[in-house]
Automatic annotation (TrEMBL):
UniProt keyword annotation of Cytoplasm present: yes
Major site of localization recorded for this protein: cytoplasm
Pfam short name (any one): AIRS_C
Gene Ontology MF annotations: phosphoribosylformylglycinamidine cyclo-ligase activity
Signal sequence, start to end: none
Name by which UniProt lists this protein: Phosphoribosylformylglycinamidine cyclo-ligase
Similarity remark: Belongs to the AIR synthase family.
Gene3D superfamilies named in the record: PurM-like C-terminal domain, PurM-like, N-terminal domain
Organism in which the protein naturally occurs: Streptomyces polyrhachis
Organism lineage string: Bacteria, Bacillati, Actinomycetota, Actinomycetes, Kitasatosporales
Enzyme nomenclature, EC number: 6.3.3.1
Length: 352
């Protein structure tokens, strides 16, 4: 009987080395001048002397994954977009504070290292970092045979950003009379996929290759649409006009995420009539007989980011976002709240 080995246990070190070689091309594209060294060290290095220009730099940190959206990528055998979802989930949490994303690291856990597949995942992460203006300074690929199937994997990432202490955005800046600007999402982004998969696959019995007229493409293509990354748009907005707060609309839906930046004593009123959610949201509701409130607390309903700005900044803010190709509109406003009131109220019905 042959002796035990790491390879016999299911871990292929040579395949891991091959994956690193394949991903280097993409990681080199996701860099910044402050990055020191290259891929392959035990840790990524970032020249912190760049922070000397700040009076009081605050570092912001965030970590996230993409949830069960990875199951769609695996079933479709398309792996070069899920990384953009990962970056969006991380860096747009950073930018909510007003922080500029500086760098990210990633963690990819696989059942079996397939070098081309791992490289494709990293390609998406690197492309997302370019869109966010940050660097990908390192990561880890772990092979877990027996825990994950050969075709299964999961991804996670962590990011760091910096903001001047007196430029931090948030609830303490918001005032009655402020306007709420919504920025359109690219679709479902990376939240609510457990519900979405249950509705389309378990209840409706749809296949990923089903052509859906409302989407103008297949179901799989719609579900795999990458998360929009707003970091550079939000930073440009904050540099140009007065912004009081941002809210990244992720898990928990629009009202719950917006509530996180609404201070005691004030109330945000969001008018549903100001936009029409995309077809995917309507179909999830119809096919699954999902109540509107359940949809709204699970999905982004077509809004990926919100900005709270003073009324006098609205016109300039919309102009900045339009110039950057961001679909944006005034979705409501902030007023006084009585003791029994909710921090966010969703009002009216969506436009037809």
């Amino acid at each position: 009987m042959a002796g035990a080995s790491y390879a016999a246990a299911g871990v292929d070190i040579e395949a891991g080395d091959r994956a690193v070689e394949l991903m280097k091309e993409w990681v080199r594209k996701a860099t910044r001048p402050e990055v020191v060294g290259g891929l392959g060290g035990f840790a990524g290095l970032f020249d912190a002397s760049a922070l000397k220009r700040y009076e009081r730099p605050l570092l912001a940190s965030a970590t996230d994954g993409v949830g069960t959206k990875v199951a769609i990528a695996q079933k479709m055998d398309v792996h070069d977009t899920i990384g953009r979802d990962l970056v969006g989930m991380v860096v747009d949490d950073l930018v909510v504070t007003g922080a500029e994303p500086l760098f990210m690291t990633d963690y990819i856990c696989v059942g079996k290292v397939v070098p081309e597949r791992v490289a494709a995942i990293v390609k998406g992460i690197a492309e997302g970092c370019v869109l966010a203006g940050c660097a990908l300074v390192g990561g880890e690929t772990a092979e877990h045979p027996g825990l994950l199937g050969p075709e299964e994997y999961d991804v996670a990432g962590a990011g760091t950003g910096v903001v001047e202490a007196d430029r931090v955005l948030g609830a303490d800046r918001i005032r009655a009379g402020d306007a709420i600007i919504a920025m359109g999402s690219s679709g479902l982004h990376s939240n609510g996929y457990s519900l979405v998969r249950h509705v389309f696959f378990d209840r409706a019995g749809w296949a990923l290759d089903r052509e859906v007229a409302e989407f103008g493409r297949t179901l799989g293509e719609e579900l795999l649409e990458p998360t929009r990354i707003y970091s550079l748009d939000c930073l440009a907005l904050a540099r140009t006009v007065e912004v009081h707060a941002f809210s990244h609309i992720t898990g928990g839906g629009l009202a719950n995420n917006l509530a996180r930046v609404i201070p005691d004593g004030l109330q945000a009123v969001v008018e549903r009539s100001t936009w029409t959610p995309g077809a995917v949201f309507d179909l999830v509701g119809q096919l699954g007989n999902v109540e509107r409130l359940e949809l709204e607390k699970t999905l982004n309903m077509g809004v990926g980011m919100m900005a709270v700005v003073p009324e006098q900044s609205v016109e300039a803010a919309l102009s900045v976002l339009a110039d950057r190709g961001v679909d944006a509109w005034v979705a409501g406003g902030v007023g006084e709240r009585d003791a029994a009131g909710a921090p966010v109220v969703m009002s009216g019905d969506h436009a037809g």
